[in-house]
Amino acid sequence: MKKIFAASIMGLMLLAGATAFAQKATVAVGHINSTELLQQMPELENVKTELQKLQKELEESLETMQVEYNQKLDEYQTKKSTWSDLIISTKEQELVQFGERIQAFQESASQRMSAKQQELMQPIQEKAVKAIGDVAAEKGLLYVIDDAVAIFISPDAVDVMPDVKKKLGIN
Questions:
Q1: pLDDT tens-digit map of 134-143
Q2: Closest Cα partner for 99 from 61, 66, 55, 76?
Q3: Cβ–Cβ under 8 Å, residues 31 and 158
């Protein structure tokens, strides 16, 4: 009886060990350089074009404001000696306020560029994430780690870049 019980315990331990080994063996990890992938996506060209168009528009507006500021400054400098103290004070306030508007415009333009970039990149990023997820599911991967944040990538990890590029139609 003791021998059967001991054999049963040994059998269960072996089975548990084999199950644990099998579970560990099924953990598959993939990796990808998502930055490189995004750079290769053809949709990125449209994003660059849109951002360049917006940047040019904003730069033209800023340049117009700076030209107007410089004209006001030149007028102030050339006519200051002929103006009364009240006019000088008023013109100085105008220059300061105009300078502040230019600075506020620059900050707003920077925020607008960032928001536009995020808006344009979101669908591209979502498309890439979906493709990565699809490839991971096809390959039975539990995790796909971005190369940029990985501390170590095992040689046994699956590089999903070629399959994701194929899925996205990138050569």
A1: 999 999 999 9
A2: 66
A3: yes
